[in-house]
């Protein structure tokens, strides 16, 4: 995976890259909606993103080379800088996209759109979360390393995790009002603790192979920990067998 990235503490590089200014790029010296040349620029940019994700996953942020990213994308070294100010900016953009995918299943619990019981919605959300983590495990391992050394990246991820935790706390309150969850739980503390468990176990299990549990066992165990912690009634064995 390569060594972890060097810290980035200057505050000079934004976590969310500014929109690309294509002026002066031979592939993209047009406004964004001007036609074929702008579409060509968009395709070039997409190739750079795809190539960079592969290189970062293989080498880590520190050891990844712009020359190799450009080579895999089929563009010149200089062309890279028409699209991104640095490899760190590109890394952060890809990290934001992957984190967004990872956060999506939270809505399955917060905004139920089915008649499933809370226990089943919970299991499906955890399963989807871990499926996404498993698919992106190599790159997520690099993100975890980078976030421990890069204050800006860490701050952005911490804010997203705080937002998700507050949303889960709202869901716990709703379950409490309906008489489905332990009324003595503090929703804020419960949401933070359960979120930390879910996230850190995924890193240990799927990114670093620190557990040899098979996928179904991992999902079922974390689901049961959630159910027990919240004081929900367990899923009947008959229903579990039908999954």
Individual helix count: 11
CATH architecture of the largest domain: Orthogonal Bundle
Oligomer: single chain
Shape field = elongated
Helix content: 55-70%
> What is the alpha-carbon Rg in Å?
21 Å
Spell out the CATH superfamily of the largest domain: Tetracycline Repressor, domain 2
CATH topology of the largest domain: Tetracycline Repressor, domain 2
Largest sheet: none
How many distinct domains?
A: 2
Low-confidence stretches: 1-34
Helix and strand content put the structural class at mainly alpha
Structure description:
The protein is mainly alpha-helical and 243 residues long. It has two domains: 1-11 and 19-85, Arc Repressor Mutant, subunit A (Orthogonal Bundle); 96-242, Tetracycline Repressor, domain 2. The protein contains eleven helices and no strands.
Task: Present the secondary structure layout.
Elements: H1 36-63, H2 66-73, H3 77-83, H4 87-103, H5 106-110, H6 118-135, H7 137-147, H8 151-177, H9 187-207, H10 215-230, H11 237-242
Helix pairs in contact: 1-2, 1-4, 1-7, 6-9, 6-10, 8-9
Concise account of the structure shown:
It contains eleven helices and no strands. The chain is mainly α and 243 residues long.
Task: Name its key features.
single chain; 243 residues; mainly alpha; Tetracycline Repressor, domain 2; 67% helix; disordered N terminus
